[in-house]
Amino acid sequence: MSLDTLAFAGGFAQPVFEAQAVFRTLMDCMARPGTIGQIAATVTPPAPLNAAAGAVALTLCDHDTTVWLTPKLGASALPGWLAFNAGATLTEERQNARFAFVEKGAMLPNLCLFAQGTQEYPDRSTTLVVEIEAFEGGRPLVLTGPGIRTEEEIAPLGLPDMFPHFWSENRQNFPRGVDLILVAGDRILCLPRTTVLRVKEA
Amino acid sequence: MYVAVKGGEAAISNAHRLLADRRRGDRSLPAIGIEQIVAQLGLAVDRVMAEASLYDRALAALAVRQARGDMIEAIFILRAYRTTLPRFGYSKPVETGVMLVERRVSATYKDLPGGQLLGPTFDYTHRLLDPSLLGDEPVDTALERDEPGEPVMRVSDILAGEGLVEDDGNLPEGHVAGDLTREPLEFPMARDLRLQALARGDEGFLLALGYSTQRGYARTHPFVGEVRIGEVEVELDMPELGFSVSLGRIQVTECQMVNQFKGSAKNPPQFTRGYGLVFGQSERKAMAMSLVDRALRAEEFGEDIVAPAQDEEFVISHSDNVQATGFVEHLKLPHYVDFQAELDLVRRMRREYEERADAVMRDAAE
Amino acid sequence: MTPDVPTSAGLATYNFAYLDEQTKRMIRRAILKAIAIPGYQVPFASREMPMPYGWGTGGVQVTAAILGPKDVLKVIDQGADDTTNAVSIRAFFQKVANVAVTTKTREATIIQTRHRIPEEKLTAGQTLVYQVPIPEPLRFLEPRETETRKMHALEEYGLMHVKLYEDIAKNGHIATTYAYPVKVEGRYVMDPSPTPKFDNPKMHRSEALQLFGAGREKRIYAVPPYTEVVSLDFEDHPFEIQTFDKPCALCGAENVYLDEVVLDDKGGRMFVCSDTDHCEERCANGHRGHLAYNKEAAE
To answer: How far is the C-alpha of A179 from the C-alpha of A191, rounded, in Å?
Structure first.
């Protein structure tokens, strides 16, 4: 397939119901950090964006949202695909991005480079969608905070070593800060800015 | 024994059936047609289009009929329909300077290029009930010009030629006009959003506020530079084609109010503007809007904010009659859970009051 | 010019759950941010709905944005499923989304409510959607949005404490009985909507997700599950909820919120559960209050 046809194909087959299902998974996972949700929707974004991340993009992005892409995603057929299927406009400035997409293996930029929102409007911050290797097999992290009964444990594989540090910096700016949607295969896990993260002692 | 009242569903459905019956009224009379409403109650239709922000005479007339002539209800029905319509694009700003005017009057010049054109106005009619309108007596056809009129110069352009009036809007380069039906309100607002809110605002509310500025609650020394009513072209840019296409013509009423301004250290003395633009023929609304627009610019001109009409948050938060009627009328919904909570507290406080009073009496008796 | 008169076939056809997809996306984005910042009011571009502002348009928009074909919807007003506005909103969603509806709290996946939280403990699979008239807890202390927004930003809530303390000085009590302000996760002061303060403790660390929609005021806010929700109070005047002297006259329930029903013009009163589903279920399970309809006695 040429780049052009890639741009038009691969959206939701049933936009209304698939977007609703993806959103409910996102909502449940954002409300219950550490819970792993499954994205059943079948979208086929241009590589290297993964399908679940593509489904999140079509569920949340449109004409009214600016999107930041990593250099590799920006060079792929993804910009055209997002423009055609979501009407979303790209931005070079992380500070202006409502959403940011990071493919597997790409370097995760420091979170403080993205829009943090303001003290008056902390909602005007970036939501990052970051694909990682897996939710198991990495360094165990303990989560606490709103949405979590006592604590949750995750072991994401593919986040930078510095991630717990990035995250605690993000946490310190509350109510400002970014929110994170992690994607691995067809599964997702959300980290809202309220979640406190600690490396589990061996 | 007590059996709780049930059957909300049946009650609602019966009430709606009764409403439909009352709306149709006496069946021996012919039903009023949409075309008749458009043709003979045109100004009611125009108000509904203006405050619903949807230019469609037939749908507005349908809403008027459906609402039994209740204007705010009709506006509400048409707005609720408008909100579901998809957006295909944003038209170019309409050019009122090349309007085909049907009415154009200026209070600031006795005569001017293009002349004073009275048009279909109530002005100078004597408000005497007209028995000829009880029936269907023949009405003479109007006298109209043979050829379509030329565009007439804006009065504000005459003043601008001499530099005596401020520029027409001063939004920064590249500013994209906002849309308060798509973005949440935020104060303070840019003037474009404020004008949109006023254009959708309740005619009565704006009339009262505009009136208040004339009575000294934020006086702005207004002169009607010009009121013009007529048709303008709505055009959509088609980047794919490299030119714009016309979507058709709409009728609008525009008012340019010219107001006094002393000037400042930065600006030489010049007149300031208040602006009003409304769908259809609605001079009262356009004029009231331009008075309120000017009053709301107080901060921009460094004027003291002393009156309600200058208070942006107050004016814009309360100008929407669909919001206002909903919230005022929601008081008739059941509130018995909250009332019970208040009842409980008042009873408790009364009990404590009586106990205290009794104690005082006892002390006095001892 | 003759108007282009619409035909019934030419008029609108509505999307699933009424709202267009772009509006749903806008609301969904607001909901996710609301969940990420518990108790903070996210501005959203509320739409005109086919019911009046002030009659639940915020709750309806939130429900419409989250609702799917697998959901089971319950709608209550004043705790009851059969109040006219609850009936009307339920019928709306049956019509525009063909959704399954229930009056049973336990069976519902989404519960839209006005002024009450069900008596039965909500669970993790459920979302409670509140209709909110005035989302700003500071509004009656400071009418200006520009000012209250600053107060939230600076976490400057002294005014609220002063107001509550003035109540105590004047009346010996905090005189707020409904819409009693709460602090969420130690940060934002939030209006719980005009629920009686009796319901406030149910919000604290609830298993269910709680979403709040204010249509006219264009705000969405949220309390995620297991989140601290503390009613404002003072050490010497701790928060307390309403208590009722008698149990429900129909089902005998205690520790529930009761409605006062006037029986006659001679001062006759009875108190019955405001939560109609809770009352009916208790009656079905054989619980009886002193004025209950007694089938055996009637026969």
So the answer is: 6
User: CA-CA distances (angstroms) from residue C266 to C31, C245, C262, C263, C270?
Assistant: 50, 21, 9, 8, 13
Please report residues of C whose CB lies closer than 8 A to that of B330: 52-55, 133
| pLDDT recorded at residue B114 | 85
What are the tens digits of pLDDT across the range B129-184? 999 999 999 999 998 877 767 888 888 888 888 888 888 877 788 888 889 988 88
Domains in chain A, number:
1
Backbone angles phi, psi at C54, to 5 degrees: 95, -10
**Does B41 fall in a domain?**
yes
**Number of compact structural domains in chain B:** 3
- Asked whether residue B53 falls in the same domain as residue B160, the answer is no
Residue B48 structure tokens: 């509904």
Q: Is residue B3 included in any domain, yes or no?
A: no
Domain that holds residue A63: 3-199
Interface contact A178, partner C, CB < 8 A = no
Active site residue C273: yes
Asked whether residue B134 is assigned to any structural domain, the reply reads no
Instruction: Point out the catalytic residue in the list C279, C283, C286, C289.
Output: C279
* Structure confidence by residue, pLDDT tens digits, A39-81: 997 899 999 999 999 999 999 999 899 999 999 999 999 999 9
Q: At C10, is the pLDDT very low, low, confident or very high (cuts 50, 70, 90)?
A: low
Of A179, A177, A141, the C-alpha closest to A158 is A141
CATH 3.40.50.11310 spans which residues of chain C? 21-231
Identify the closest residue of chain C to A123 by CA–CA distance: C33
Looking at the structure, do residues B56 and B200 belong to the same domain, yes or no?
A: no
One domain, residues B220 and B339:
no
What number does CATH give the domain C21-231?
A: 3.40.50.11310
Range of the domain at B311: 96-121+150-169+180-319
Q: Could you give the percent of chain B with pLDDT greater than 70?
A: 98
Q: Is A50 helix (H, G, I), strand (E, B) or coil?
A: coil
Closest among C143, C154, C159 to C232, alpha carbons compared: C159
Helices marked H in C67-226? 84-97, 145-153, 158-171, 200-203
Q: Taking a C-beta distance cutoff of 8 angstroms, is the pair C292, C251 a contact?
A: yes
DSSP state of C120: S
Residue B220 and residue B110 share a domain: yes
Stretch C67-74: mean pLDDT, rounded? 96
Q: What are the tens digits of pLDDT across the range B253-310?
A: 999 999 987 677 777 888 999 999 999 999 999 999 999 999 999 998 888 999 999 9
Specify the CATH number for the domain of residue A114: 3.40.50.11310
State chain A's mean pLDDT as an integer: 94
Q: Does B104 share its domain with B208?
A: yes
Is pLDDT larger for residue A1 or for residue B88?
B88
Which residue of A30, A32, A120 is in closest CB contact with C150? A120
ipTM over 0.85: yes
Please check whether residue B345 touches C, CB under 8 A.
yes
